[in-house]
């Protein structure tokens, strides 16, 4: 009895320390998908813009609501170049997409240089930080290379397999040397990364209608 007690207490402490102090378990907000080189009107304002139609999607992979106040998108590998500050709440499993036009509006409203998300087509880094008082903590980041920034290809985590990234290349098929590889699926800004296959030349609006997706 005593031996099992001595054995169990450290296990319980280990479980508690893992559960409460492992920063990985607190990284509930992850970058889920992004498009660095849009070639069509992704933000739905009726006009194509290489800046305003870029997008970054985040997901809440935890099991509790997350208050997004303090979460910010930074562009580039050097220091912080703030491009957008989130607000609102994200429920478990829910995604949220920020378009270049949202980023531009935030920059204009807060007197930042107006670059939009500035996802460089030659490769870049996207980071999510959480800022609380004087504490700025990196929450997630993704580096991408130039072949991941080709017309209308997004890069995203595979739904149900968050460690695996693919290029969603249905509308601009990867030649075989893509990093990450292509999966033949349509990009899904604002929706979980289910695989919708379509080599047809249809609009994102038509895809949403066909799939019964009404948000944006
Ligand atoms: Ca770009
Ligand atoms: Ca647009
Ligand atoms: Ca950039
Ligand atoms: Ca998505």
Give a short overview:
The chain has one domain (25-210): Immunoglobulin-like (Sandwich), CATH 2.60.40.
Describe the structure.
- 19% of the residues lie in helices and 30% in strands.
- It has one domain: Immunoglobulin-like, CATH 2.60.40.1260.
- The chain has helices spanning 2-21, 23-26, 100-109, 204-210; strands spanning 29-35, 55-60, 66-67, 71-75, 82-85, 89-90, 95-99, 123-132, 135-145, 154-158, 161-168.
- Strand 4 (71-75) and strand 5 form a beta hairpin.
- Strands 7-2-1-10-11 form a 5-stranded antiparallel beta sheet. The protein has a 4-stranded antiparallel beta sheet with strand order 5-4-8-9.
- Residues 1-25 have low confidence and may be disordered.
- One calcium ion is lined by residues 32-33, 57, 95, 156, 188-189, 191-193.
- One calcium ion is lined by residues 36-37, 50, 54, 119, 121.
User: How large, in whole angstroms, is the Cα Rg?
Assistant: 19 Å
CATH fold category name: Immunoglobulin-like
Q: Supply the CATH class.
A: Mainly Beta
N- and C-termini, Cα separation? 59 Å
**Biggest beta sheet attributes:** 5 strands, antiparallel
Q: What is the total domain count?
A: 1
| Mean pLDDT across all amino acids | 86
Number of helices: 4
Describe the global form: globular
Per CATH, the architecture is Sandwich
| Spatial strand arrangement across the major sheet | 7-2-1-10-11
Secondary structure category? alpha+beta
SS elements, strand count: 11
Helix and strand pattern: HHEEEEEEEHEEEEH
Strand percentage: 25-35%
What's the helical proportion of residues? Answer: 10-25%
